[in-house]
Amino acid sequence: MVIRPYRAGDEAALVDLWNMAAPQDGINSWRFRQKILLDANFDPRGLLVAEEQGDLAGWLLALTRQLPMRGTELEEETGWITAFGVHPACRRRGIGTQLFDGAGDFFRDRGRNTVYFASYAPHYFLPGIDAEVYPAGYQLLQREGFRVLYSPVAMDKNLVGFTTGDDVREVSQRLSRQGYEIGALASSAIWPLLDFVAREFDADWLRAIREALAGGVPDGQILVARGPGASVAGFAMYGGYDGIGERFGPFGVARALRGTGLGKVLLYRTLEAMAQAGMHSAWFLWTGEQEPAGHLYRRAGFAVTRRFHVMVKDLKGGQGQ
Fold first, then answer.
1. Of 227, 219, 232, 228, whose CA–CA distance to 192 is shortest?
2. What DSSP string describes 192-251?
3. 2-150+309-314 and 161-279: identical CATH topology
């Protein structure tokens, strides 16, 4: 068994291995190309593979930031592991441990002190480890010194027969009287929206909107809420990630306006637009179950479909913080 970096020509074998090791979260060659090879932070030395007699038995993807998300910040003490797996026929032979040892060397050589699984932007596959689907992977992370940082959930909603209730319409009418309106993104609103998101939210949301628009996502799939004076007050998007129409988000309203009902109306207006476009469901990968957004989604009929653990390890001490 040899642990080595990725080499050009490994792609098909890696996709096959990935789908054997993690069939519930399989990928295809297009996603491998888009989310790994074309990631500006990809370093072939961080894509480690376990090879035995010419066959691949395991892999691990380690990343450090080479392109800043905001300004010039490269998060120079931080690294990420976004995916790993071992072929089912090759498990219980220490391959996962060897891959993590190699990742540790990769990060230490680059002066990293903290490693996360798997809260990486822009190209995470899952928010964290799903301990129910991958109990052995969760146990391996724990043995390697990772601890749980927080536990987001994925949620889905069936849109078949979707209608907006009278309670939402009443809130919408009240906000309309106060000078708020919601409509599809117009060219004149692009820069105000980007400026709003940069001030109010994470840099990854700003990237997501830019890439969606540059990739041809129709303006009608981005709804913008504007308040008195036409200032941007919130937004919601669907179909912006990987061209998947039923994937909802990102979505948010200004901090000062949370609790006013604007988020509720914006959410229902977006779900209504998705249903009218013929979509049968809406889903997303990441929210805090007990946070206000999580409660809003539940009231709108979303149900938790998966739970994840974002995990972290302190390399200086070798153990979870």
1. 232
2. HHHHHHHHHS-HHHHHHHHHHHHTT--GGGEEEEE-GGG-EEEEEEES-STT-TTBEEEE
3. yes
Token readout for 75 is 């998060």
| Residue-range domain boundaries for the chain | 2-150+309-314, 161-279
Cα dist from 118 to 52, 160, 233, 267, whole Å: 27, 33, 31, 27
The CATH number assigned to the domain with range 2-150+309-314 reads: 3.40.630.30
b/e code 164-202 from CB counts within 10 Å (16+ = b):
eeeebeebbeebeeeebebeebeeebbeebeebbeebbe
Neighbours of 305 (CB within 10 A): 13
User: Under CATH, what is the fold of the domain 161-279?
Assistant: Aminopeptidase (3.40.630)
* Cα-Cα-Cα-Cα dihedral sign, residues 60, 66, 67, 70: positive
Contact 159, 280 (CB under 8 A): yes
Render the burial of 228-260: b for 16+ CB within 10 Å, e for the rest. eeeebbbbbbbbbbeeebbbbbbbbbbeebeeb
**Encoding tokens for residue 318?**
């070798």
Task: Note the pLDDT of residue 317.
Answer: 66
CB 77 within 8 A of CB 111: yes
CA quadruple 138, 13, 35, 73: dihedral sign: positive
Instruction: Look at the block and give the residue holding tokens 């689907």.
Output: 133
What pLDDT sits at residue 319? 46
| Residue carrying structure tokens 């990630």 | 241
What's the pLDDT at 321? 42
Query: At which residue do the structure tokens 């792609």 appear?
Result: 11
In this prediction, the residues of the chain whose per-residue pLDDT falls under 70 are: 317-321
pTM greater than the 0.85 cutoff: yes
Q: Which of 206, 225, 209, 218 is nearest to 266 (CA)?
A: 225
Determine how many CB atoms are found less than 10 A away from the CB of residue 40.
Answer: 10
By three-state DSSP, how is residue 309 classified?
Answer: strand
Instruction: Provide the 10 A C-beta neighbour count for residue 161.
Output: 6
Residue 84 DSSP symbol: E
